[in-house]
Specification:
Helix content is 28%, strand content 24%. The protein is α+β, with helices and mostly antiparallel strands. It binds flavin-adenine dinucleotide.
Length: 482
C-alpha cells in the first residue's frame, strides 16, 4: 500500500503542473501515469495567459528563450490574425513550443520539489470515503490518498467512475491528422474540386490535416499511412508521396463539459473536465489554467488552513471558464463553416476594428479571466507584472509570487499590522494608484485598496481567500475591532 496526500491520475500538462504546485506547497503528491514513455507531441503553443501564469512561478522565462514568438493569437474562422500588442498581458505573443517540452520542464520541477511520478501505472478503480480515497492500479497495487485528481484526459477513468456527467455535443467530423514528411508547401493546398489539405510546419516534419470522405463508425480505428495517402491524393487530384509517419490519428469537434469539477474528495482538471474543438489551440493552456487555479486551493485544504468553501471555488471559477471556452471554440468553428453568413460578416468587421480585435484576442486566450467582476479594474483579474521596488531592490510583481503564497503588497506603508495574518511586502510603485493589493497565490487580485479608503473590505477578503483573520484585525459592522 502506498500513502500520499494527493494522488493525481495522468502526467499531461494538467497533472504535472498540479503536482509541481502541490509539491511547492509541501503537499505529498504522487502522479500515476498509464504510459511508460511520453507520447508523441500534440500541441505546439503556449498562449499569453499561460505565459503570464507560469511567470508567477518563474517558469516562463526559460520557455520563452527556447520557443518561437508570434505576435498574435491562433484563431479559426476569421481572415486575419488577432493581434496581442495591446492585449492585457505581460507576454503579448503566442509561443511556439512543443507540448512535450513544456511537460518535460513541469515534470522536472515537480520532481525537484518532491513530487513522485510513477510511469507505467494505470489507475483502474477507486472508492472514496469521508476521510480519503483508495485507488487501485493495473497491477493490483493500492494507493491511499486524502484527495484524488483526475488529470487523465478526455476519456477520463476518474470522471467516469465518479459518475460525473459529461454533457455536450458529439463530434460531427473527424479529420485525419498525419505528422509526416512530404513536398507539399506550408499552408492550404486546394484540390480541383475546392477541397483542401492543410500543411502545418513542425520541427523536421509537417502536420497534414484533411477531411476523410468515408470515416469509420469508430473514430479510434487506427489510421494506416495508406489511408491518409489515399485521402490526400483524392483531395489534391494527384499523388504526393507521404513519408516517415510519426503520428497518424483522427480528431473531432466534440464539445463536452463535466457537470461538476469536484465530487467530495475527487476533482477533475484539464481535458478530463472539458473537451472542445481544436479552434484557438487552447487545450494545453486551459489544462494549465485549471491546475494553477486548483493547486493552491487544494494545498491549503490538505494543510487544514483553507477558509471554508475555498476548494469549491475551484469548480465555481473553472467550470464557468470551461463554459466560455466551449462557447468560443464552437463559435470559431461555426464562423469557419459559415463564412458567407451575416454573423461571420459581422465578426469579421468586429475583428477588423482594433478594439474588437483586442477583445477577441483576450477572450480566445482567456486573458479576460476575471473571478471577481466589479470594483477596481484589477479586482478579480491577474495583476499585471508592474515594476516594483522592494527593500531598495528593483523587482516586479510576478516575482513576489514565486513561493506560491498569498501576498499583501503594501504600496502605502500602512498595512504592516496585517502580518502575520498574511505575508505583507512593502513595495514602491510608480505605476499603481492603489494603497495595497491582496494577491491570491495564482496572482489574481482578491482585494484592491483604493487610496483614502483604508483597509475597508480587506478582512473579508483575507478571511475568504487566505484563512482566519486574527481578532485584532477582524471587521465588525464595517469597522475594525482593535
Ligand atoms: C491533434 C491535436 C493537436 C493539438 N494541438 C494543440 C495546440 O496546438 N495547443 C494546445 O494548447 N492544445 C492542443 N491540443 C490539445 C492538448 O493536447 C490537450 O488539451 C492537453 O494535452 C490536455 O492536457 P491534460 O493534461 O488535461 O491531458 P492529457 O495531455 O491528455 O494527459 C492525460 C494523461 O493521462 C494519462 N492517463 C489516462 N488514463 C489514465 C489512467 N487511468 N491512469 C493513469 N494515467 C492515465 C494519459 O496517458 C495522459 O498522459 C491538441 C490536441 C490534439 C489531439
Amino acid at each position: 500500500m502506498h500513502e500520499t496526500d494527493v494522488l493525481i491520475a495522468g502526467a499531461g500538462p494538467a497533472g504535472l503542473l498540479l503536482a509541481a504546485e502541490l509539491a511547492l506547497a509541501g503537499v505529498r503528491t504522487t502522479v500515476v501515469e498509464r504510459l511508460r514513455e511520453r507520447p508523441h507531441c500534440r500541441g505546439f503553443n503556449l498562449n499569453s495567459r499561460s505565459l503570464d501564469l507560469l511567470a508567477r512561478r518563474g517558469l516562463a522565462e526559460g520557455l520563452v528563450a527556447e520557443g518561437h514568438q508570434v505576435p498574435h493569437a491562433p484563431v479559426t474562422g476569421l481572415p486575419g490574425p488577432l493581434l496581442l500588442a495591446d492585449a492585457a498581458t505581460d507576454h503579448p505573443f503566442s509561443l511556439g513550443i512543443p507540448q512535450t517540452r513544456v511537460e518535460e520542464v513541469l515534470e522536472a520541477r515537480a520532481i525537484e520539489l518532491g513530487a513522485e511520478i510513477l510511469r507505467g501505472h494505470e489507475l483502474r478503480t477507486f472508492t472514496q470515503s469521508p476521510d480519503g480515497v483508495s485507488a487501485t492500479i493495473h497491477n493490483g497495487q493500492t494507493f491511499e490518498a486524502r484527495y484524488l485528481v483526475g488529470c487523465d484526459g478526455g476519456r477520463s477513468t476518474v470522471r467516469k467512475q465518479t459518475g460525473i456527467g459529461f454533457p455536450g455535443v458529439d463530434a460531427r467530423w473527424f479529420p485525419l491528422l498525419g505528422d509526416v514528411e512530404c513536398e507539399l508547401p506550408y499552408g492550404v493546398s486546394a484540390g480541383p474540386d475546392g477541397r483542401s489539405v492543410y500543411v502545418i510546419p513542425r520541427p523536421g516534419y509537417v502536420r497534414i490535416i484533411v477531411r476523410e470522405d468515408d470515416p469509420p463508425a469508430d473514430k479510434y480505428t487506427p489510421v494506416p499511412l495508406d489511408r491518409l495517402q489515399a485521402q490526400v491524393d483524392a483531395v489534391l487530384g494527384r499523388h504526393v508521396e507521404l513519408r516517415a509517419p510519426r503520428w497518424l490519428t483522427r480528431f473531432g469537434d466534440a464539445a463536452r463539459l463535466a457537470s461538476r469539477y469536484r465530487e467530495g474528495r475527487v476533482l477533475l482538471a484539464g481535458d478530463a473536465a472539458h473537451i472542445h474543438p481544436p479552434a484557438g489551440a487552447i487545450g494545453v493552456n486551459v489544462a494549465l489554467d485549471d491546475a494553477f487555479n486548483l493547486g493552491w486551493k487544494l494545498a491549503a485544504t490538505v494543510h487544514g488552513t483553507a477558509p471554508n468553501g475555498l476548494l469549491d471555488t475551484y469548480h465555481d471559477e473553472r467550470h464557468a471558464a470551461g463554459e466560455r471556452i466551449l462557447a468560443n471554440t464552437r463559435a470559431q468553428v461555426a464562423l469557419a463553416e459559415d463564412d458567407e453568413a451575416p454573423l461571420a460578416d459581422l465578426m469579421r468587421r468586429v475583428a477588423a476594428h482594433p478594439a474588437g480585435n483586442r477583445a477577441l484576442a483576450e477572450i480566445i486566450t482567456g486573458l479576460d479571466a476575471c473571478y471577481e467582476p466589479g470594483g477596481h479594474p484589477w479586482l478579480g483579474r491577474l495583476a499585471p507584472d508592474v515594476p516594483l521596488r522592494v527593500d531598495e531592490v528593483e523587482t516586479h510583481l510576478a516575482a513576489l509570487l514565486r513561493s506560491g503564497r498569498p501576498v499583501l503588497v503594501d504600496f502605502s506603508g500602512s498595512f504592516a499590522d496585517w502580518s502575520p495574518s498574511v505575508e505583507v511586502i512593502a513595495a514602491g510603485s510608480s505605476t499603481s494608484d492603489l494603497s495595497a493589493v491582496l494577491l491570491r497565490p495564482d496572482g489574481h487580485v482578491a482585494w484592491a485598496g483604493a487610496p483614502g479608503c483604508g483597509d475597508e473590505g480587506l478582512a473579508d477578503a483575507v478571511h475568504r481567500w487566505v484563512g482566519k483573520v486574527p481578532r485584532s484585525l477582524a471587521v465588525s459592522g464595517g469597522g475594525r475591532v482593535t
